[in-house]
Specification:
Hypothetical protein YwqG fold; 4 helices; mainly beta; 6-stranded antiparallel β-sheet; single chain; globular
Length: about 210
Amino acid sequence: MGTFKELLNDRSKALIFQGRKFTEGDTSWIGGNAPSYFDHQKDFQSIYGSKYYFLLTLVNPLNPTMMFTIFYPKDYDAYLENKKYPNCTILLVEHPLYSESSEEVFTNPNMKKYAIGNYEVINNDTSDNKIFLVKFGGTPLHIQNKNFYSKELEADSFEFLFQIDEQGYPKDDDFLQGNYPFSYGALYIYAQMNNEGITNPVVGYWQYS
């Protein structure tokens, strides 16, 4: 795989992930139930359980003992009106590796569980020609390339970490019923980098065409 330097320092490489049917042994997924880590987070459940859906969980490819889990408000207007850092209402939680919960506290009934498959290493400059569900490292592929979205992040020393692109959702008819949560858009995750480590990951913003 690409090294931290290649992915997040000189950004010459990127990892791309595709969605596919879930099979036993897959550790990253979209749709379905949240990781069982959140079964034990009662304060988190009480604050967000009735207001948020689980979107996906991705094992950190640079540290496979940890994963990034993303939740978004059930109310579309709540995240449409608060779409960028520091007021973005889409949540990202970094936590140890857990399997899927049997509880449906955060489950979107319209989104079936699919796997986020193994990554492919690509040269960053070829990513424009690729359809993907997740791109980790390299540089972001924007729908709207405007400094408006990232200037506060950059001022606080955040750098691009990965993005989720709805163009790369599984095409199977049973994956998603109804509208795409982000209007056929993309989410951009940023973090602070320190001594080849990733700290304070956040959903920086989301965009749609």
